[in-house]
Amino acid sequence: MILEAVGVIAAAYQVFAIVACIRFRRGVAHALVRAVSRLVSTRVTESGVAMSGDAARTSACATILKAVRGLDPGFRAAIESHTKLHGEYELLCGVRSMDDPAVAVLREFPQVRVIECHTVTPNQKVGVLMDLAREAKHSILIVNDADIRVEPDYLARVTAPLADARVGLVTCLYRPEASTFAARFEGLGVATEFAPSALVARLVGVEEFAMGSTLAFRRADLERIGGFAGISEYLADDYQLGAKLHRLGLKCVLSDVIVATHLGGTWRDVWSHQVRWARTIRVSKFSGYLGLPVTFATVWAVVALCAGEWRVALAVLAVRMLMALASGWMVMRSRDVLRLWLLIPLRDLFGAAVWAAGLFGNSVLWRGQKLKLDKQGRIL
Length: 380
Fold this sequence. Notes:
This protein is of the alpha/beta class. The protein is 51% helix and 16% strand. The chain is built from 15 helices and 9 strands. A 5-stranded mixed sheet has the order 3-2-1-4-6. Strands 5-7 form a two-stranded parallel ribbon.
């Protein structure tokens, strides 16, 4: 009876995640329809005369801040995508040294302003952002990771929700694109486990989460929380930024934009990445971390099968695989989810092992550095 109850709970979460995926897709579709309608209406005047493409574009003013370190695969494509955005913006990229190999790539794009940053903080990335923010000229700031690739309408779409004074931050889901099989395996978890959990959180009204794939916010609100200095001690700077803005009474909303990110590395790298993320989540929000096993449908299907409850096992596994398609393909449009669909149960079991490893220990590896964290997620 207990096993059946756990199976029902695990399956119910998967069904709820499917509903969240469907609602998100409908929201995206409605947003696209509205965007097309606005484009058509601005192209045609009341007299029926067509306007130029430049005049028809939605304008957005923002400063994009990127902390850059090293030359990773996909970096050039990511930067190039940011030089093709519609709207008024500036792109500031910060490095610790002009000898960084990424500088040569950045110099290929005249739209990019490269800044050598010297502020030292426990979280080195945040120190770079502090220097970049001082150079920014616009009132809206956008921070995203160095390997994030975007579409030309990205700027207008991620800043649009900030027109509502109740919104303090806009963030985005990200679609993984991998160069190794180990990274593709890791990407399955991003597309079919992490993404739906973010959509479920949104559906139930959780408004403090934020992801490094995109953080769009007002400079004035950043100053109200003490600037970037207020999050400079934390490893999960993105989460802390969202949480502090939320404490001001502002909403952190999920955009309908999905950006792309590059994953690479060996199996050892994948394990290290995943354990770092798990421990970061644990120290950022321990109660939420303890609740994650409820989402481990494949684990509970295996437990049910071992107990001889094969009907329960098949039912739970079936709804899990259906949810993986809803999230991985319908929402994220990840081709790897279709190609590697049969490996999703193995990826789920791998994820459960990562969760168990993340439950203990206070050290993580980040860009070759071993960092120790306190119980609040601050770097010691």
